[in-house]
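Appendix C. Worked example: ATP/GTP-binding protein
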Amino acid sequence: MDSKHVSGNGVHLQESVQIAAKILVVGHFAVGKTTFIGTLSEIPPLRTEETMTQAGAEIDDLKGVRGKTTTTVAMDFGRLTLSERLVLYLFGTPGQQRFVQVWEDMSRGALGALVLVDPERLEESFAVMDLVEKYGIPFAIAVNRFDGQPNRSDEELREALDLLPETPVVTCDARDEKSSANALVALVRYLQNRSS
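Step 2, the predicted output written as structure tokens:
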């Protein structure tokens, strides 16, 4: 949105107003949210990761997860400037059910959510998608491709996740800046189309 003001000589000048948008980066445990935000953030990301202990082994299911030694216990935060007029503030939520109370506060003021999913653990995404829908947050799906996984078609993914036809589904690698940025751009375009 542009605003006008009058300079000392009476000439009207255009002044660009920057728009800030709060975007949630959500997904089940160990899907790559912290990596995604760290890959894209133009500032050093805020991370609240703690070392996983033997005490949490029975709570946090590591089946299908390789090399995970830490877990987010509050949130991740980063910032990404998409254009001169649009800045995204990225808030990553913990993926475990025991942190679900964090969602209510995190969802306030969120323009949209990018739901990261692991194509080999799709059933773990249902609880997260239920929360996004519960709080009425428009969302897009980003399929985080891990090394050595077979490709699934968009149709298979849409059917497995029971998505509406208009819900965007994109593929990304949370470690890759370009593909992660493309996933966020797909969400932003979807949000823009909904509001026009």
